[in-house]
Amino acid sequence: MTSLAKIEQDERDNVELPLIAQLVTMGWEHTEGDKWVAAQSERSSFAEVVLRDRLRSKLIEINRNEHAQKWLTPVRADEAIAKLVAFRGATGLLTRNRALTEMLLTGVQIAKDPSQGEQRDPRVHFIDFDDWAANDFLAVNQFRVNRPGSTDWLLPDVVLFVNGIPIVVIECKSRHRKDPLVKAIDQLRRYANQRKPKSREGIEKLFDFNQLTIATSGDQARLGTFTAGPRHYGRWRTTEPGSEANVLAELGTSKLTAQQTLVAGVLRPAHLLDIVRNFVIFNDEGDRVAKIGPRYQQFRAVNRAVERLQTGKSISAGAKHDERGGVIWQTQGSGKSLAMVFLVRKMRNTAALRGHKIVFITDRRDLEGQLLGTARLTGETLSVARPQTRAPKGGVETATLTDLLKRKPPGLIFATIQKYRGADEKASDKDSADGLLDAVPEPLNTSDQIVVLADEAHRSHTSALHARLRAALPNAAHIGFTGTPILDEDKRKTTEIFGPFIDQYTLKESEEDGATVPITYEGRHAVAVVEGATSLDAVFSSFFAHLSQKERDAVVKRYATEGMVSEATEIIRAKARDMLIHYVETAMPDGFKAMVVASSRIAAVRYQEAFTELIDDLVVALDGDAEALTRWEKPDDGFLDRAALHLDRLKQIKAAAVISGAENDPPDGAPDSFVEWSDPTKTNGRITSFKKSIGADGGDVALLCVKSMLLTGFDAPIAQVMYLDRAMKGAELLQAIARVNRSADNKSRGFVVDYVGIAATLEAALALYRGEKPVKGASNDSDDELTRLEKRHARALALFSDRKLGLDDEDACVDALVEDAAFRADFADKFKDFARSLADTLPQPKALAYLGDAKRLGKIALRVRNLTRDDDLALVLADAAPKVRALIDEHVKAQGVDPTIAPVDLTDPAFAKEVDERKSPRAKAQVMEHAIRDYLTVLEDKHPARAIALSERLEEIIEKLADRWDELLDALVDLKDAATTSPSSTVPGLSAVERPFYELIVLRASLDGTAIDPKIIEATQKATALIRSEIAAVDFWRSETLRDGLRNKLVQLLDGYIDDFTTVQQLGDDMRDLAHRLHEELLGDV
Predict the structure, then answer these.
(1) What EC identifiers does the entry list (predicted)?
(2) CATH topology (fold) of 295-513
């Protein structure tokens, strides 16, 4: 058995089959898939993905009238199925999936039948969410699906069906594979056509109804959706609401693997239907729509909260303090706000809580859309608190918060909080809510069926507004959500308001899970930005040297504090230049954006002005303007050359200020007017632009300059860098830096670049957040990343030096990698780590020293990838950070290699040209050998005899002609022609489907394949006739008895034609296996 075969066997024995066995213990039925026979998986063809017979049967069973009687006939069930399966209301997988998901949740209407007394079109439900046990749960492994309009197919490892509808796809990989989860997720993205949508490489129809995807290697497992990239697949660390002890007993083990935990926590039938119904949403933020499933901490917290709401005692029922509420503490960026939306959905689908009024208090308006979607699914109107009243329209009404609170339950109310503004913003020192909740002299609503959900509970809701809410709703339950520390001095007060903790999810857990990315801190005090400046006095001397002493003294008096100096236009420009250089070399090449936190609103506007001028000037310089180039000569470390690689992207970006207005602001047109940057409509447009990708329509805002706005409740995964030019501490500081910790594809970390010296404050805040004593090193320092880069670089080079190879001898390095698969795998691993660390540390001066080796190693990797078609190297190159990949691409292009051209298939007419482009006979032979191996792997499925014979010839040629490259190349060219040319002569009396059987007999019996043997033709005809007759039996391939019977009959038949009985026995096995592969062709289905 080859090493690959062993790995594939390990995937089946130690990942796939244990997963299925665990599903069976939880109540799932299992059917073994068959990649050759569609009927084995209850389908008439491999083009189908819905198990119609199973679905029809369940629809009739679960759809009942008010008397619990079945009313759906098979014909009417088919009418409902047709609306689901033949849905043509949308183009594009995501749009179809969104519409079909709503059908799964709410059902479809079919034509009424007046003869049955129906006066309106009845609704047919596809899943019984209220009684999970009434549904059908089926797991099918090795579920073949043909590509559209083709007999080519893909084979997902496990597909899970609820009532015959495929809603979960699982990909299993052996832990012995390199990066098994990366490969599993890549495979899932391929199936769903999400890697290269225009290529149509996948089987989109399998994902029309999909709700979840799972990647697993047994010891590791991740949950995602079909739109998720690798970073959005999350661990699942809990079996809740099921007991871990019960799961251990079920499985007879003392410790659960990651796979066992995820399967128990997510795929237990009751849990899965809960997730599908209440925890899967579509997010329209940014420039793409994504389907989002839950993270385990959201699922756990929501279910704990629902349990407490149902079991806790209210004040009106005699409790001294309401026992139904509490605090949910989840790290910033880990999905806290979505957990609030999930809780609303769960409450609306829980009978005991369905009639409650929910008051949703947050500072994030973008959640209004998610709540509207929830309200639509439950058939209610979303009431939004605003100063003006508006009748319901599009599922939304507006009224004052006071009026909305007075109404009897149920109801869904959405209100946004406007938090403190800065001192320079001249706002009242209190919170307010849209729709104005004035002082409340007496309760507005004494019902105990009211739940207040308060976002950012550590701050906004200890204020006067929350006190008024308490007075207005004296018997309501209150649940507070916080993403930053409820600091020690506030802990008692917070738990008094909301009750005990319901759930906690820490920063450490979040980073370990990949829910957020770690943040790297870099200190760059402002004086260091000004050349030659070592103190604040030096800054003045540098900028104001042209003034007389008297004038300089006046300036010093005017800018009497460091805070005032920080607003000086010249100093802001100097810092903005430093920030722009940093941004162009860190986040911009990878498509990410940055925020600047200024000391005041006027400073934020001046930053915007400085960036606008600097971006234009840098573009002009990179376009070759001599005068502009002199202004960018420093830093003289190659910055301009590296920036030139991303000139097109630089031309697509701009800066914007986002600030709030104040009552006494100068009017529009007046000096220092803020209207342009505080106008709500324009502000919302700039925020929307910032959230979009660079290059996307309307996505040009890449540098967002703020004072206080957007530092809390602002979720933009595209933000990677925060430049701090305002002193902060405690919760405000942690809230601010958390803007850059959101995970995104190709985002390994966020960056905080400090211009005001908050390092010690940050360490203390982080330590308090983690419940630790303040220690140096609580944040990630940029020096730590440089140390890691140095070590990873040394490991990559050691791979070659240990083999007496140097990077200067590129051809020798390539040859060694091509000829040694283990060396190749090790290189892919070490190069990936080195490239990742380089991306994390650029453009620090010490990191620049590693660029040369990165380019050389990248070129070697590209050449080896093209020669060997190595999947690992292809993945490493594809996943490298864009800024590193751009450097490698520029290097190889300069040497005449196009990095965008992938290897050509052996049968492609362009293959000969690819071979000819190689300089040496050795390189030509290497390309030829690996291309032939790839081709034979595909050929083996349907023509095993030819594939085996050709493979044996390949090994013989390589062994015989080793190191004789010219002769080897000639022999491989001949073999390539033989492999890709269909046999020229037909065999009289044999059809195309019979020919592979004839070839198999000739191969195994060691006969002369060039001579036509009538006796072997007759044997082939009789054998294929026998096979056709036998395999036509229902469930033939499932029956071991029938399979053994066919094998024995073939042996008996062939014994009359072939003398050697050992050969006859082997042929019995081989021909039966070939019959399985050619099942559809033999029975004329294809």
Answers:
(1) 3.1.21.3
(2) Rossmann fold (3.40.50)
